[in-house]
Write a structure and sequence with these properties.
Number of strands: 4
Largest sheet: 2 strands, antiparallel
Distance between the termini: 55 Å
Helix content: 55-70%
Shape: globular
Order of helices and strands: HHHHHHEEHHEEHHH
């Protein structure tokens, strides 16, 4: 039997998340049997549906491998959003079985889920994934003329060896160069969101979970933009970014439905305009990163990523407008 560091880390993160969930549930007055039911349902459903979504997103390849490959779990091949759907399904079933409010259970799980995500994202580096651009390309200068700057960044560094180490970079096992440790950066951001969600006070059940999912989607869009590894694509489109956009649209609908009906439809329209405009900003940032907007190809890569960060924040804030409105009512 082989034990893989990444698998051990993710398993440990899940266990830690479930322990924190049990603590949160007790503080919220949720019964112990509810915690047990959710653990028993969420672990297998999240695992299997994350695998299923991966296979569906790579359906042609999966058909070539044969159906038996689905059960080759040691070969990798999972998607976060499949796990999210599995957990949501387990939440719904747990609520039906125990009679507990699904929103209350979701709120107790929100912070632990983000903590699990943070640890799992940072651990991607153990699986040889989650890295970005090579450091030497990022700060490179012309080999024949040190004064001629040819790198991706606005910063000129002839010697970038300081960044060729953790926590900034990780060595690419295949090419032997150092690349930005994107997963570690995203893990730190997710850890900060975990603290924010843990301390967040809400008036309505389910509000913590909604905001956590919005932040999760925004962080995922940013991470997928920064990654330069074996990320899932449909042609030139990054799958997780599309799924994140769909999730944000669903969350906006949920927040608007939860808010009391209003005679003035202007807030609803403005919220959708904000979300769609933010999605458009993400697309512009992606085209700039790929140098497909000719008149903006002079913008350095770190400038493009600043725009992407702002675009991802705008995505979350566009949903938060509706979230605040439903929280007040």
């Amino acid at each position: 039997m082989h034990f893989y560091p990444y698998g051990i880390l993710v398993s440990s993160a899940v266990v830690l998340g479930m322990i924190l969930f049990a603590v949160n549930a007790r503080k919220s007055g949720i019964r112990k049997e509810t915690v047990s039911w959710l653990a028993c349902l969420a672990l297998p459903s999240g695992f299997l549906l994350s695998r299923l979504l991966y296979c569906l997103c790579r359906l042609t390849w999966f058909e070539e491998q044969g159906f038996a490959w689905f059960f080759h779990f040691q070969d990798g091949g999972y998607m976060m959003y499949g796990a999210c759907f599995g957990v949501l399904l387990a939440l719904w079933l747990t609520s039906k079985i125990t009679g507990e409010n699904m929103g209350a259970i979701s709120d107790a799980l929100a912070a632990p889920a983000m903590l699990t995500y943070a640890i799992g994202r940072a651990g991607d580096l153990l699986a040889g994934q989650g890295y970005g651009w090579p450091i030497e390309d990022w700060f490179s200068v012309d080999a024949f003329d040190p004064e001629e700057y040819t790198g991706m960044s606005v910063f000129h560094l002839e010697d970038a060896s300081f960044f060729e180490r953790l926590p900034f970079a990780v060595e690419d096992a295949y090419y032997g160069n150092y690349r930005w440790a994107v997963s570690l950066f995203i893990g730190v951001i997710a850890l900060a969101i975990f603290v924010f969600i843990l301390c967040l006070k809400v008036k309505r059940t389910g509000s913590k979970a909604i905001l956590m999912l919005a932040w999760l989607a925004g962080v995922t869009v940013l991470m997928e933009s920064m990654r330069q590894d074996d990320l899932m694509r449909w042609g030139v489109v990054r799958v997780s970014q599309i799924l994140s956009a769909v999730l944000l649209a669903i969350l906006l609908v949920v927040c608007q439905v939860r808010a009391k009906p209003v005679t003035d439809k202007k807030p609803l329209i403005l919220e959708w305009i904000a979300l769609l405009a933010s999605m458009g900003l993400v697309m512009i940032a992606e085209f700039m990163l790929e140098k497909k907007i000719v008149f903006l190809d002079f913008v350095p890569m770190d400038g493009c990523y600043v725009l992407m960060i702002l675009a991802c924040l705008a995505l979350v804030m566009s949903v938060r407008m509706a979230w605040k409105r439903q929280e007040r009512q």
